[in-house]
Amino acid sequence: MNPDISAIVVNYRTADLAAACVASLREAFATGGISGEILLVDCGSGQEEAAALSRIPCEALLRLPENRGYSGGANAGLGRARSGRLLVSNADVLFSSDSLPPLLAAIERPQVGVAGPLCFWDAGEKVRMPPGYAPRLWRDWSQLSAGRWPSLDRPRFQSFALSSLQLWREGGRVDHLTGAVLAARRDVFDRVGRFDERFPFEYEESEWEDRLRRNGLELSYVVASRVRHLYGRAAGRDPSTAARRAESRDRYRRSRYGSVGALLLEQAGRRRSRVDATPLPRPAIARSPGMRLAISPNPSLLPFADASLEEDFLLPEDVLPSLPPGPLYLRVFSETDGAPRATYVWEKAA
After folding, report:
1. Does domain 5-127+171-231 fall into CATH 3.40.50.2000?
2. In this predicted model, what pLDDT tens digit does every residue of 201-210 receive, in sequence order?
């Protein structure tokens, strides 16, 4: 008898995170009364992780001889999965005990090609991660050109803030879902294909989701399903991450926008964005009722993580390991109309 769901956890040099992820999935299976199998895929981490991985209780441990990236790891798991309902997850995700039933309910709708949960950045669930950021030529160019035309930056941020707040409240149909956790039916993969392994790090989910939309399928953001994404923890352990990300980004731009569009974005990326921001000695903002806080390493603050300012805010300690050295931008904005009120910057030391 096949399980209700096959969960594929992709690991690369993060056995400690993978163990916690698998344990949270086991609890979610038990709480939801779900019969599930867990397929742990290791992307060539090497012998140093072999013992730790072997101690993680799962239905199958698939050891790939080389790092085929998230796309390759997910595809290897898909090839072994027995259920018609599939969950693909980063190893740096912790599932809440009630996170799975809403995702499974969402993908039962025939028009839905994939569903993703609301991700929190911290254990206290004070900082919400963006649901995704759909690549578009003008949007990508605007993000890279932040500060050059402030009169355009303000309404662009305001519009994005309002749409993000609505999604965080209600969920619904979106143009992009982050690849950290994706739930889909097997027939969807049969229809549109698996992940493209030419994308070694990131953008594999963007390209796959492009195919979903071209086939008339919807992407569903399910806020009733909540997980914690330890964003950046896994990537920070691989010294080749930056090069692999750049390779994927450049490939995606060329395939989506053509050589001219890719060149336009490359040139925009070479120019340093300059945003008016007040320096902060620490990542803390005083209470401001009716306001929210956008948090992003991007000067454009698009996309951004979000926190309430109904009380004094201090960036949670458990978020700090996810951040690389450098600037972190914090923008106070109105919960009512999304209008920015003040922008700050805090520098994380090396």
Report:
1. no
2. 999 999 999 9
